[in-house]
Amino acid sequence: MNDVLPDEMARWHLIERLFAEAARSYGFREIRTPIVEPTGLFVRTIGEATDVVEKEMYSFTHRDEALTLRPEATAGVARAYVEHRVHTLEPVTKWFCTGPMFRAEKPQRGRYRQFYQLDCEIFGDPGPGCDAELIDMLVGLFDQLKIPDVRVLVNSIGGAEARARYRDGLVAFLEPRREELSAESQRRLQTNPLRILDSKDPRDKVVVAEAPTIEQYLSDDDRAHFDGLVRALTALGVPFTIDPHLVRGLDYYTRTLFEIKGASAKLGAGDTLVGGGRYDNMIEELGGPKVPAIGFASGIERLIIASEATVPGAIVDAYIAPLGASAVEPALVLGRDLRREGVAVEVDSRGGSLKSQLRRANALSCGIALILGDSEVESGTVQVKDLAAHTQDSIARAEVVRFVSDRLKARSR
Ligand code: AMP
């Protein structure tokens, strides 16, 4: 688990702000759900025989209640949807959220035990139009974040029936090749054979390359749904690849599945920026009505590594250096007046030479230093030093707030 230090926050804020703006522009509203949920919620939705539930959850018992730090957002958001009977209020619900998730994984670059996700969920729209829109929204966001080498992978995993038939077909194919599989996959053959398709073990990859794909097991309706997704993505001009072996680590998915990868040069094997898909049966399984749903989650830490967008480095806009005893209180008042006009100001009343004060102004990356000495106080003026333009002006105290805020505004344009 990591500390996020203040130097890194500008990039976090950029990502969170652009995500929230993008989500709102598609009609999503923000929801916040608790970090702790009953363990049973995750076991029922994510699935017993998944890596997350088998080995990665931070679970504990509190007063006889089995609780877990959420390993992902969807289950909690879906629980909230059911609990508040939101389907009685509106036919389609679009929610986004951001926050920490917890998985006891082996930490590596882009993989942490407390990590943050951006998350969107749509309830009540069977797709595939909204499936394509979600993907398009993300591609647009990643373009704004200047993430190189973005690739969209899509697949359909069908409905429950197709999935059950495929499971049988896959087991029939893999069983005779059991000895060629890794020990983990041999075990998965009994518990969750679809997960073998997702294995990173080179032995498994060789076997899986030959395995039947889900495509031939899809029902006509599943196939029509997937064709609709392909047509919508094409109409939106989103480049994508159909990956027939794409399955995801959580059990609840139906039909549309997608992943978005990017910045592989920096992220290596952990270059999956987004995982998403449909989960048309979950709401009913949680005791709600039959409501289709789709969502995705994206890891903020990975976006931070991947993004090449420039972020502002300035800590404050202006720095005030009072020189001499009589200047301290006028400097405090000037600082307060500037802040009221929206200018972020550091008043450094520790004293010291002008040189050392200007060094500090540069360290704060601010564009303007205001110098107030005894003689300025006496003459009712302030020296305004523009550190970017390398100019200095003597401005009347009554004018200086406007002067500084106008100059900063002109610069931000
Ligand atoms: P998942 O919830 O497993 O489908 O993951 C969705 C996205 O969350 C991934 O594509 C990553 O971007 C991110 N993610 C998942 N697990 C971690 C982790 N342990 N550390 C950092 N990011 C993660």
TrEMBL record:
> According to its UniProt record, which reaction does this protein catalyse?
tRNA(His) + L-histidine + ATP = L-histidyl-tRNA(His) + AMP + diphosphate + H(+)
Is Nucleotide-binding given among the entry's keywords? yes
Keywords per UniProt: Aminoacyl-tRNA synthetase, ATP-binding, Cytoplasm, Ligase, Nucleotide-binding, Protein biosynthesis
The subcellular localization recorded is: Cytoplasm
User: What InterPro entries does the database record attribute to this sequence?
Assistant: aa-tRNA-synth_II (IPR006195), aa-tRNA-synth_II/BPL/LPL (IPR045864), Anticodon-bd (IPR004154), Anticodon-bd_dom_sf (IPR036621), His-tRNA-ligase (IPR015807), HisRS-like_core (IPR041715), HisRS/HisZ (IPR004516), HisRS_anticodon (IPR033656)
What superkingdom does the record give? Answer: Bacteria
Q: Please state the protein's primary subcellular location.
A: cytoplasm
Asked whether the keyword Cell wall biogenesis/degradation is assigned, the reply is no
Q: Where is the Aminoacyl-transfer RNA synthetases class-II family profile domain?
A: 15-306
Coiled coil ranges (UniProt) are: none
Q: Name one GO molecular function term.
A: histidine-tRNA ligase activity
Assembly: Homodimer.
Family label? Belongs to the class-II aminoacyl-tRNA synthetase family.
PANTHER family listed in its UniProt record: HISTIDINE--TRNA LIGASE, MITOCHONDRIAL-RELATED, HISTIDYL-TRNA SYNTHETASE
Q: What is this protein called?
A: Histidine--tRNA ligase
Organism in which the protein naturally occurs: Pendulispora albinea
In the UniProt record, what gene is named as encoding this protein? hisS
